[in-house]
Design goal:
Elements: H1 2-8, H2 12-22, H3 28-45, H4 48-61, H5 66-79, H6 82-95, H7 100-112, H8 116-129, H9 134-146, H10 150-164, H11 168-180, H12 184-197, H13 202-214, H14 218-231, H15 236-248, H16 252-265, H17 270-282, H18 286-296, H19 303-315, H20 319-332, H21 338-343, H22 351-363
Helix pairs in contact: 1-2, 1-3, 2-3, 3-4, 4-5, 5-7, 6-7, 7-8, 8-9, 9-10, 10-11, 11-12, 11-13, 12-13, 13-14, 13-15, 14-15, 15-16, 15-17, 16-17, 17-18, 17-19, 18-19, 19-20, 20-22
Amino acid sequence: MKIKVTAQLGDYEKAFTMVDNCTNQMTLNSCVDLYLAEAYIYECMREYNQMYHKLREVLTIDPKNEEALEHIWLCVEWSRLYQESIEFHNSLIDQDAYNYLAWFNLGHAYSCEGDYKNAIRSLEYSYIVNPEFKTGYLDCAEVCIQTKDYKKALGIYQELIQRFGHNQEYLVPAAECMLNLRKYAVAKDYLIEALKIDQYIDDVYYLLGICYASEGNYTNAISSLIKAIRLDDRREEYYAELAYCYEKTKQYGKADFYHTKSTEAGPEEEQYWLAHVKFLMRRNKLEKALDVLEEADEYTVGPRLSYCKAACLYRLGKKKETMECLDELLPEDFDSHKIFFKMAPKSKTDREIQSMIRYYTMES
């Protein structure tokens, strides 16, 4: 304890001297404690490679030492020793297949290496070996979501709910998985259950809004989304979804207003500028769409926005500017050009446009 306090105070030389003074009287147990203390000194010094190797020494002596297993993953993440961690934790598992924290650390190392199949398998074993290990379930489900395996993630959350009871930490992500699987009615049930536990979580109202909107119940969707915004008025996706619902109910002024709010909340996100521009173009507000595109250019860039600009120019009859815009865009990002035809459908029969597209088709 004295060694750790000394390290916390930043007197690392004294801390190491204290370790050295203890080495002469070491037993196997005190050796583990000293190695842990040394690892802590290295952590305070932000020397994560040395910290990792010192914790390895602990685990070589005591492979199930929980303190070492819990801390070694942190220094692996900081030092990026993922491959080394994979080899080491596999060796621990070879000694004892029931070492649940070794499985857990192995799963994270695989995940950082982009080997999601082995990451999921390893994280699964962590909670199969120790069914009370909630973090194993949760992290495994997160990797499943990362790989868009919503069905598997949902199964994990449902297992958590069954084993540990109703908790927002499980109910809300389970509902998100259901939304991705288009199981809107069941998702809504989970979200309503989550609200019974706590009525002040903005995410729940936002997801409920999506559920109601998917059913065409835009009145309830709008009500839920407004509640979400009252709880957190900095989330651009809340404003964007509310704008969508107002457009669906033909409240175009409010839709325009909330599209603007979404881009104010997330100015660096291309998708919200794009949603606003598309809305304006659907309403034939082409000059305003160009103004929004000009403003977007101050915060973000993206080929889809540029193709929308070309479509606006075309629909305004500015053929020369359209051609110049396309001539610049097509060589840089040919694949995104379909949005131009979608937003300016009459251009599909324009010979000059088609000639230019054919030229760049051959070039690409």
